Amino acid sequence: MHHVIAIDDTPTNLVVYRQILKDNEAIHFSAFENPKEALEWLAASETENPADLILLDYMMPQLNGLEFMTAFSAFNHRKDVPIVMVTADTERSVRLRALESGARDFLTKPVDKAELITRVNNLLALRDQSRQLSNRALLLASEVRKATTEIRSREKEVVFRLSLAAEYRDPETGSHIKRMARYSELVAQEIGLPDSECALMLEAAPMHDIGKVGIPDDILLKPGKLTAEETVQMRRHAEIGHRILSGSTSPLIRMAATIAYTHHEKWDGSGYPRGLKEENIPMYGRIVAIADVFDALTSVRPYKRAWEVESAVNLLREQSGHHFDPQCVEAFLRVLPMVSEIQKLYQDGDED
Quick one: which H or E segment has residue 6? Predict the structure, then answer.
């Protein structure tokens, strides 16, 4: 059903329009003598008061056609509704101004029956085509969103399984990975990174030690202190992790590659694998460095007892400007209450 709205202060003209269009059963006709009442009616939602075409008289005492169009243009939900201006043949300047205001077509008084029917049918057909294109665009947008969601879901699954693979070879627990990832997200938010990057940080941080899959068991699982040569071998995990993850087009995997490569760099340049210094270290690596070390200190390991939070915080303060970015340290300290909540939520032994 198409809804045609006619606005004319002369009742006879409205009767003529109704008579001409009455044979078209696909048209529902509504008429208004007062243009202000028509505006109030059109201000309602499309669902409540549908309109597919407006026949608008120019010469009206309360509000002429151009003034009506100016007010009507404020209705964003009606911006696609075509308007046909009805004018006298001599009002050429009015027609030009109406075109500039958005009129789609014109009818000349006295209105010819065949012309009115043809103009109305053509504009309603165009209206239908426009709706079909709009619906198709919405459908395509929905399909794109669906495909994007599926891709992101697969990405997250790959990330999870990569992290799980590293976890099976590493004496650190799955809870450690969950905690440090959430600490990293908190610090990223506190520093003011965009929401999209903070969300990626939560998903990418668990892969920081993925390179340990390439470290021999006799080094990775050694209970005592590593020799100098073994330490060199152990430190290769940062480069191995970067090689595993680099070259991806995925923003998530690219961030994970950066984190794997840089989370052992130190603010003063004494870290590895490249000895980067200060802001030459990517922000993602600087954030994860603090989250990883703090959780390692406050967690039980086969070779050590867990530190008290106060002791770990004191170390962060001492190493601010040496091991850690001072800005990241301050951000971590500001979110310490939430860090404590995360520690309670993800305790070692709760991996299942």
Answer: strand 2-7
- Strands 105-108 and 83-87, bridge-based pairing: parallel
Residue 256 makes CB contacts below 8 A (sequence gap 6+) with: 159, 204, 205, 207, 208, 210, 245
Q: Which residue shows structure tokens 């006295």?
A: 110
pLDDT, residue 5, reads 92
Q: Which residues of the chain have pLDDT under 70?
A: 89-91, 160, 163-174, 302-303, 348-352
User: What DSSP state is assigned to residue 31?
Assistant: E
As given in the structure block, the two tokens for residue 259 are: 């984190």
The span from the CA of 348 to the CA of 126, in Å, is: 65
Residues 6+ apart with CB under 8 A from 265: 271, 272, 274, 275, 276, 281, 285, 286, 289
Tens-place pLDDT, residues 106-155: 888 888 899 889 888 888 888 888 778 877 877 888 888 888 778 777 77
Going from the C-alpha of 213 to that of each of 79, 220, 253, 314, 322, the distances in angstroms are 59, 9, 17, 32, 29
pLDDT value of position 352: 46
How far is residue 345's CA from residue 339's CA, in Å, rounded to a whole number? Answer: 10
The pLDDT value given to residue 90: 66
DSSP conformation letters of 102-133: T--EEEESSPPHHHHHHHHHHHHHHHHHHHHH
Spatial separation of the C-alpha atoms in residues 100 and 93, rounded to whole Å: 11
- Cα distance between residue 62 and residue 9, in whole Å: 9
- Cβ neighbours of 193 (radius 10 Å): 18
User: What DSSP state is assigned to residue 269?
Assistant: S
d(CA 315, CA 243): 32
Tell me how crowded residue 326 is: count the other CB atoms within 10 A of its CB: 14
- Of the candidates 334, 294, 337, the one whose C-alpha atom is nearest the C-alpha of residue 314 is 294
